[in-house]
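User: My collaborator and I are trying to settle a disagreement about how two of our proteins should look. Neither of us wants to argue from intuition anymore, so we agreed to look at predicted structures for both before our next call. Could you fold the first one, then the second, and keep them clearly separated?

Assistant: That sounds like a sensible way to settle it. I'll keep them separate. The first protein:
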Amino acid sequence: MPLPGEEWNDPDGVNWTEAAPGSDREPDQRRTGRLLERIADRRTDNRAAGAAPPAGRILDRLRSGPLGGLRGERRPGDDRVASLDPAVSESTPDAIRWPDPARLVTQLKALSSVKQAEPARWADGAVDSLQAALATGGPRDADAEAALITLGEAVPAGMTVADALTDPSLASQTRRAALALARRVAVWRAAAAYCREIEDRPRDALAGEVGAGLTAEVSAAEAIRLLGWLERFESSRSAADAAAVKHALHDLGATPLPGAAALCHAVEEHYLSPNFRLAVNREFVERMLPRSTVQSGPFQDFVLGRKVRGTRTVEQTTAVRFNPHPSEIRMELVVSGEVASRSVAEAGPAEVHSRSQASFTVAKPIQVSANGLTLGAARGNASNQTQLANVQTSFDGVPLVGSLARGIVRNQHDEQRDEARREVNQKIISRACREVDGQAEPQLAVMGEEIRKRAWEPLVRLGLEPRAMALETTSDVATARLRLAGGTQLAAHTPRPRAPADALLSMQVHESSVNNAFERFELAGRRLGLEDLARLVCERLGMPPRVPDDLPEGVEVTFAAAQPLRVECRDGLVHVHVSLDALESGRRSWHDIVSHVAYKPLTSGAQVLLERDGPVQLSGPGHQGRMEIALRTIFGKVFAKERPV
């Protein structure tokens, strides 16, 4: 959403989902930890651990500018010097400027150069509004709010332009630019509101150990540092910058001010969005169910205390019904049946021959919520029609008496027809519900256990902390959106492609989920043989260890210390980047190698596979020279085209 509390035109309806409710925060008067107390505690902890005091102390940071720490500052594991330099306005030293949205500017300028007039005109206007917002003094500038409101108005305008375009690629480019703008407007407005809250609060409420004025400066600096790290992440997508954002969020979240909570929520909503989406159509589920079954055989029962025997034929079908719900997956396993029977009921000296036709429907509730899988008891309804076929008595050979006896039996049958029908219906319902519960629950329990072992537990072991962020059921589709991100990781912050409307099963994986998993492999700086690497990946994913037969033998790789393995989803392909410090094969070795391979998705029956598209591309100084052919041979076997993923 571009503006807090306002809606914008979302063509899919699911580009972004509401963040899960956060934990209740204590009232201000009950919070004991203030911002400066946290900073003082952090210093005390550093000294107690024998660590040197941070180079950027509070006073030093403020003397050199509230964002001095961002200039050239490096985080552990970050191999890149900060490209942003959110400078402080020279004319208004107390105001902190906005960070440089370099990637957003690149997106808008690329769009402004397209041939079609409408998206280009919109991009030019968005650039002008963005420049006007950047020209203000930053979140603490009173003029920033009006500029951001104007900037936010460009978001729905951009989405409207995108909806009217006939070129899908250009429409996607326009939507992505509009949503990138929306992220900034939402977070920047929240930061500006937080800074205004700081300014408006009484000085004594913010007073700390180093003075009230300094407290306001530090609080605003915390917010602007967060904005700076967000822009760095937008440009780099690196794990180190993501960790810096989460660290800044943690610090800001400890501030007992409503504005701080609102700013954290805005960041979480736009940078910790679900990065895995699974949508299942009702028709797909029904195709997985057993087809109609027909069973015939003898039966024996009691109705109204009388023994009944005969033969029956049961024709049964299974279907599924989706029950719409905004925050849970709710469905019912529906079993319908038709029962045709011929029976003989013993009534003292008489036997009553009947033909009956019955139907029943049983529904087994299945519910998936944030608490897991819940199975309800089956419930059903039934109806039956019975036709009296014949009556035989032991007096049939006696004139007059036999006829009288048969008449009495027929009258009794008619009088007890409704009562017998109710009892038979109840027996049909009870038997059908018992069978559905007895058959469905074990199978669903086994299926749930398989999902837990093969999908959920490996994610937990990787430290991705899987969490269901949004569950939804319509009459035709059940959708689950998960967030896969560890404590120092971000999740999706860009929109997903539109899923095909006629898809029976749609699974969309944001690149952040794969990159988060790769980071949890802990390959940075490690030296491994290819066989050991294959076993390690299988182990981390909870799969049986398997080494491909055509994997090159005697090859060892040393991964780069930063971003050794990255994935990028672009132009309908999955691009895999591998950075190696060294590759050794026998007496030969190569250093500083970067390989790139693209995969295209394809289907094989019910499976979705990734097949290599084009040759493996090598770059970096280590791949050049006489032994490049041997190096390409090794990578060609590692990323074999004949071995899809």
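The second protein, kept apart from the first:
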Amino acid sequence: MKKLNLLCVLFIGLLVISCASDDDTQTITEGDPQNSNGDPQNVVVQKLLSFSSSLTDSNEIEFMTQLTYTNDNLTKITENYINIGENVWNYSYTDNELTAVNSMPITYANGVLVVEYEFERDEYFILNNQVLSQINSFRNDPSEAFQFSFKVEYNYTDNNITEKRYLDENDVLTGSTTYEYDTKNNILKGLDNLNKWIFPYADLLGGANNNITSRKEFDENGTLLRDFSYQYEYDSNDFPTKRIRTFTSNGTSTVKTNLYTYE
């Protein structure tokens, strides 16, 4: 459960926050991200405080997630799954640098982010300190060294993930996912890149500049397995406050509603 949530996919996807609050928002100019011409662009920073998921037809809430910040650092995520229980993520920092999530060590150096579990190890390869290009996952048991298990490769357009490819230990394709986006601010845009890469649900929320409008999952032969479409309502700063997700598989569709609040 811990690994699945932390990766989401694996990825979701925890965090050094580089923002301050002035009437709930602040406009800053920074070198990353850049627009399509390679020029810095203004970024409106809003820190995500909570989000929920419910079945649209019944309005029955499935889960609520709350984020807690201390001195602009994300220090806790509380996931409350209705009728199931609670899952808590605690973040540890040293000199404002994220060093562990729920006692799982995290290190970042030379473009490689490493997350270690009891019997697993994930290596996130970061391109130009900006976008995730590949994840290598290793597993072991108490009597063996870590053995390569699988990897995920990423393709981007304008800092948005457009395709993910899953490959096994023999470098054989086992599946892929494609994405399309709107032009508004991504839900996680207020988070530092390091935390965005490993944020729970990052794979579902986008972990990119903009918000997913289409997500399609394929098997190794390119056959469509699952089809997701998304519609949004936005606040005055173009951050999503509501998302309607339609999931279609084997001819059956399910609609869910997500609500988001910000500081």
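Some points you might bring to the call about the second protein. The longest strand covers residues 60-70. The two ends are 28 Å apart (CA to CA).
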